[in-house]
Amino acid sequence: MAILTTPKTSAFSNLGEPPPKGMHLAVCLDVVDTFNDRVLIYERPYGSENEDDYEYKNHETFIFGVKCKDGSLRKITSRAMPISLHEKSNLRKFLTSWMGESPKDGLDSSKLKGKEAQLTLIEALNKKGNTYIRIEAISEVMEELKSKVPKVEDFVDNNSGPEIPF
After folding, report:
1. In sequence order, what are the residues at sequence separation of 6 or more whose Cβ sits closer than 8 angstroms to the Cβ of residue 23?
2. What average pLDDT does range 30-34 have in this prediction?
């Protein structure tokens, strides 16, 4: 029997500096599922201490590796999306855009590790007014460009093991 423990750090804690805005070829390094995330219900007051203003959801987040024009390797995550393939869900829209077709029932999203993607990254403002880089769009990589996509192995440091904390 496996002994499960709570990780001491988040899977997103050591991503480093994000890639610059623009279009990038990327590879999916990992798919991170989180369960029972406590999230504020839409249009409830930010910072509320009332437990009725919150709900619990399961989310899926994708970690991508990008090789920048200067040759540096950077990582970026998608937003955390509720795990749902409903026709209006953000996860379904994201996967459809990435795979070029609607995901089929029973899709094992962990099989997307190593899949190529073309990302459009933009600068955005968070609620506190800070600028950050986020994924605006994702699409399939054209066949002619697949050889230029970085490999998952490029993001492994042979001296200390994987840079990705999972």
Report:
1. 118, 119, 120, 121
2. 92
Domain that holds residue 147: 22-42+49-159
Question: How far apart are alpha carbons 147 and 29 in whole angstroms?
Answer: 17
Q: Say if 2 falls within a structural domain.
A: no
pLDDT digits (tens, 9 = 90+) for 41-81: 888 888 888 888 888 999 999 999 999 989 899 999 999 99
* C-alpha distances in Å from residue 62, one per residue of 94, 139, 158: 10, 14, 23
Does the residue 115 lie in any domain? yes
User: What pLDDT does residue 166 have?
Assistant: 45
Domain count, the chain: 1
Q: CA-to-CA distance for 144 and 115, rounded, in angstroms?
A: 15
pLDDT at 38: 85
136 part of a folded domain = yes
Q: What is the pLDDT of residue 93?
A: 96
The letter for the amino acid at 158 is: N
68's tokens: 């920048």
Alpha carbon separation from 68 to 22, 26, 28, 72, 76 (Å, rounded) = 10, 10, 15, 5, 12
Domain contains 17: no
